[in-house]
Design brief:
Layout: E1 4-8, H1 12-26, E2 29-33, H2 36-45, E3 50-54, H3 62-72, E4 77-82, H4 88-96, E5 101-104, H5 109-140, H6 150-162, E6 169-172, H7 179-188, E7 198-201, H8 207-215, E8 216-217, E9 229-230, H9 232-235, E10 240-244, H10 251-263, E11 265-267, E12 274-276, E13 280-285, H11 289-294, H12 300-306, E14 309-312, H13 320-337, E15 344-345, H14 347-355, H15 361-375, E16 380-381, H16 388-392, H17 407-421, H18 426-433, H19 437-446, H20 450-453
Parallel strand pairs: 1-2, 1-3, 3-4, 4-5, 6-13, 6-14, 7-10, 10-13, 15-16
Antiparallel strand pairs: 8-9, 11-12
This protein binds adenosine-5'-triphosphate and magnesium ion.
Adenosine-5'-triphosphate (ATP) binds at residues 145-147, 173, 175-181, 286, 362-363, 366.
Length: 455
C-alpha cells in the first residue's frame, strides 16, 4: 500500500499543486483538505501516515491543527509549511508541539520529498518499537507464567498488587520454580518497565568483584581498576535491579546493600563521594534466609528490609494440577521451535511424568520435554521416550499430610498415593493396603476418586 498523505491548505490551488507533485514523482496517495476541521474529519474516516499543513489558515491555524492531531493520533507525522524564512516563531512552536519538521515557502520539491521520506522512516521505527514492547510484555508478563493451581493464583495476585509499587520484593522458592520469571513479570508490570531490568547473579562472582559490579569503582581503586566504571545500581537508576541468589553475598556487601535500601545512596568503590539513585530492588533466593539469619550468616536487619513483600513459589510437586498445563505448553513450544510435529504425550507416559517428584521443578520439566520433543519419532511421546531416570523413579513412597485434616481425608489421600505408586493397578494396591479388592473399589467410589483411576 502506498503511504497516505493529507495536504491541508486554505488555498486550494496550492494544495492541488502539492498533491500533483507528490503523486507524479513520489508514489504517494495524496488527499487534500481546505481547512483544519475538514482535515480532522478526513482523518477520523481514513488513516493517513503524514499530514502536511500550511501554517496560516483562517479559524484553525496549522499549529492548532498539529496540536489536535498529536492529541488524537500521535503516530501521524506532521510537517508544517511556514511563510517566510524570517518568520521563525511558528516554526519553533511547531517543533515544540511535536511536528516532524517545518519547511518554508516557496516549497522546494526535493526538500519536501526528503522530509516525507524521513518522516515515514521514523514512523516505521516507532511502530516497530511499539511492537517490540508488546512482544516484551508478552514475553515477560504474567501471560508467560503457566499455571492455574490455587498456589499460583495467590502468586499472581501478589504480583499484581506489588508490581506497581516501589516495594522491595523477595522471591523465594526451590531451584527452577520460576523466580526469575516472576522478577521479570514484576518489572514489566511496573511503571519502570520502559527501562530494562538490570540483573546481577550474586553467586557468580568473587565477592570483591561483586562489590564493584554492584556499586562501580573509580580509576585506581584496586589493581586492575584502570578505568572508572559504573555499577549495576547506577545502570538500574529509574529501573529495577534483580539480585539473584541474594543469600550468597558476604557481610561487608550486606552492609553496603542495607545502606542503599535505607537511603538510596551509593558510593563507587574507592570513592568518597556518593550519589543518589532511584532503584527498585527485586531479589531472589532458593535458600532459607531466616535460617542463615539464625546462623549469623545473613544480617537480620537486611533480611527484614528485603522481605517487605515475600513471594513464595511452590515446588512443582505441590501443584500437580499445573503439570498437565506446563507439559502442553512446552510440547507446543518446542515442537514449533524445533520444527517437529509432536502433538502430545501418551497416557502411560503422562502417568510417569505425574508421579515423578521433579526435584529440579519447572526447569527440569522444561528441559525434559524439550529433549523428548527433539528425539521423538512419532506424533505422540511414548513412555519409552522418557529419560531412564524418570521412568525408573518411584515417587512418593511416603505421603506428607498436614495435621488438622480428618481421618477420612487421610485415608483418601493415602489410597490415592498408593494407587499412583502402583500405576493405578488396583489388585496390587489392594494387596499393599491389606484390604480386599472389593473394599478398594467401594472406597474409590466413596471418596469419589474415580476420575483419577479411570483409563
Ligand atoms: N510457571 C512457569 N511457566 C512457564 N515456564 C516456567 C514457569 N516457571 C519457570 N519456568 C521456566 O523454567 C525455567 C526456570 O525458571 P527460573 O529461571 O525463573 O527459575 P528460578 O526459580 O530462578 O531457578 P534458580 O533458583 O535455579 O535460579 C525457565 O526456563 C522458565 O522460563
Ligand atoms: Mg534463577
Amino acid at each position: 500500500m502506498k503511504p497516505r498523505i493529507l495536504v491541508v491548505d486554505d488555498e486550494e490551488k496550492a494544495a492541488r499543486g502539492i498533491k500533483r507533485l507528490l503523486e507524479i514523482s513520489g508514489g504517494y496517495d495524496v488527499d487534500i483538505a481546505c481547512h483544519g476541521k475538514e482535515a480532522l474529519e478526513k482523518m477520523g474516516e481514513e488513516a493517513f501516515n503524514i499530514v502536511i499543513t500550511d501554517y496560516k489558515m483562517p479559524e484553525m491555524n496549522g499549529l492548532e491543527l498539529l496540536e489536535a492531531i498529536k492529541k488524537q493520533q500521535p503516530e501521524v507525522e506532521v510537517i508544517v509549511i511556514t511563510a517566510y524564512d524570517t518568520e521563525v516563531g511558528p516554526a519553533v512552536d511547531a517543533m515544540k508541539l511535536g511536528a516532524f519538521d517545518y519547511i518554508t515557502k516557496p516549497i522546494q520539491t526535493s526538500e519536501l520529498k526528503i522530509q516525507i521520506k524521513k518522516a515515514l522512516e521514523r514512523q516505521k521505527l516507532q511502530k516497530e518499537r511499539v511492537l517490540f514492547q508488546e512482544e516484551l510484555d508478552k514475553k515477560y508478563g504474567l501471560d508467560n507464567i503457566i499455571g492455574n493451581s490455587p498456589a499460583m493464583q495467590k502468586v499472581y495476585e501478589k504480583i499484581r498488587l506489588v508490581a506497581p509499587t516501589n516495594a522491595t520484593v523477595l522471591i523465594t522458592g526451590e531451584s527452577g520454580t520460576g523466580k526469575e520469571l516472576v522478577a521479570e513479570a514484576i518489572h514489566r508490570l511496573s511503571s519502570r518497565k520502559d527501562k530494562p531490568l538490570v540483573k546481577v547473579h550474586c553467586a557468580a562472582l568473587p565477592m570483591t568483584l561483586l562489590e564493584s559490579e554492584l556499586f562501580g569503582h573509580v580509576k585506581g581503586a584496586f589493581t586492575g581498576a584502570v578505568n572508572t566504571k559504573a555499577g549495576r545500581f547506577e545502570m538500574a537508576d529509574k529501573s529495577s535491579l534483580f539480585l539473584d541468589e541474594i543469600s550468597e553475598i558476604e557481610p561487608f556487601i550486606q552492609v553496603k546493600l542495607l545502606r542503599v535500601l535505607q537511603d538510596q545512596f551509593i558510593e563507587r568503590v574507592g570513592s568518597t563521594r556518593g550519589f543518589q539513585v532511584d532503584v527498585r530492588i527485586i531479589c531472589a533466593t532458593n535458600r532459607k534466609l531466616e535460617e542463615l539469619v539464625k546462623k549469623n550468616k545473613f544480617r537480620e536487619d537486611l533480611y527484614y528490609r528485603l522481605k517487605v513483600v515475600e513471594i513464595e513459589l511452590p515446588p512443582l510437586r505441590e501443584r500437580e494440577g499445573d503439570i498437565q498445563l506446563l507439559i502442553d505448553h512446552f510440547v507446543k513450544h518446542f515442537s514449533r521451535i524445533h520444527n517437529k510435529e509432536v502433538e502430545g504425550i501418551a497416557p502411560n507416559a503422562l502417568k510417569v511424568l505425574y508421579q515423578y517428584p521433579w526435584p529440579g521443578n519447572i526447569r527440569q520439566l522444561r528441559n525434559t520435554i524439550e529433549s523428548m520433543v527433539v528425539l521423538c519419532r512419532s506424533r505422540t511421546i511414548q513412555k519409552k521416550d522418557l529419560p531412564e531416570e524418570i521412568q525408573k523413579s518411584k515417587r512418593k513412597n511416603n505421603v506428607r499430610m498436614p495435621l488438622g485434616i480428618s481421618l477420612q481425608e487421610v485415608e483418601k489421600e493415602y489410597i490415592l498415593a498408593t494407587l499412583r505408586k502402583n500405576d493405578f493397578n488396583k489388585a496390587q494396591t489392594a494387596k499393599e493396603l491389606g484390604i480386599g479388592r472389593k473394599t478398594l473399589y467401594r472406597k474409590i467410589e466413596e471418596y469419589d476418586i474415580h476420575s483419577f483411576t479411570a483409563e
